[in-house]
Specification:
about 260 residues, eight-stranded parallel barrel, 11 helices, 8 strands, binds 2-phosphoglycolic acid
Length: about 260
């Protein structure tokens, strides 16, 4: 058995309607009600959080409610932004920080990601910190360096006692939404290197306890081989999280992998 319980998240991005998202979450929650050995969360768009949260509560939630982003500021004149306390009010338990679409499309910097991580953990919520290199960085041989820089920057001034609430998601940008996933061996290599960075920052106990999940074109067909790698502790799923059958099968693969051992 793996010592870390795997985590599987469904990042819906800017997809679904209120009605299709409600149907999706009902299907996922019902199918996973009795699947243990995996922690599951869904990350719907902001306007649907309250409605999706209510459905999860009705189903006595094994599936947790997550948000895709948050503003680093606590309140005030920040038109269009959403604070951690607003997310808590909507029963959100877990928040993504530094997703590559926010870094590379919206322009979030390492410093902003660090502020978001601190705001999320400081509010008592769990955080999924996303890191990963672009294709150009990979081709230039800088992948490990980029991941290390993003992890160190994002965790600046994050105290050790908050690390149990943090999951790292390694999501190579070239693998997101492209259909080209990292090979299981490449994912393992990147995860092991990220774990070494965590060890340098917090020591071996925290490094061994922290879950590092993989994201980027995970499908039901490739999930098990990736999750079976010793340093891969589940996945962050985009496209395949929008279909009940695909997402449930991926979550089951993570549970099966945890049961089978590493
Ligand atoms: P994908 O997205 O599974 O569609 O590649 C993953 C992510 O962006 O978290």
């Amino acid at each position: 058995m793996k010592s870390r319980t795997p985590f599987v998240g469904g990042n819906w991005k800017m997809n679904t309607t209120l009605s299709s998202g409600s149907e999706l979450v009902r299907g996922v929650a019902d199918a996973l009600a009795r699947v243990s050995q995996v922690d599951v969360a869904v990350f719907p768009p902001f306007p649907y959080l309250v409605a999706i949260g209510a459905i999860l509560r009705e189903r006595h939630g094994r599936v947790r409610l997550g948000a895709q982003d948050v503003c680093q500021e606590p309140d005030g004149a920040f038109t269009g932004e959403v604070s951690v306390s607003m997310l808590k009010d909507c029963a959100v338990r877990i928040v993504l920080a530094g997703h590559s679409e926010r870094r590379h499309v919206i322009g979030e910097t390492d410093k902003m990601v660090n502020q978001k991580v601190k705001a999320i953990l400081g509010a008592g919520l769990d955080c999924i910190l996303c890191v990963g290199e672009t294709l150009a960085q990979r081709e230039a041989g800088q992948a490990n360096q980029v991941n290390e820089r993003q992890v160190r920057a994002a965790l600046t001034q994050v105290p050790e006692d908050q690390m149990e609430h943090l999951v790292v998601a390694y999501e190579p940008v070239w693998a997101i939404g492209t259909g080209h996933n990292a090979s299981p061996e490449d994912a393992q290599d990147a995860h092991a290197k990220i774990r070494l960075v965590l060890e340098d920052l917090y020591g071996p106990r925290v490094a061994q306890q922290t879950r590092i999940i993989y994201g980027g074109s995970v499908k039901s067909a490739n999930a098990r081989a990736i999750f079976d790698q010793p340093d891969v502790d589940g996945g962050l799923i985009g496209g395949a999280s929008l279909k009940v059958g695909d997402f449930v099968s991926i979550a089951r693969s993570a549970a099966d992998s945890a049961n089978a051992g590493d």
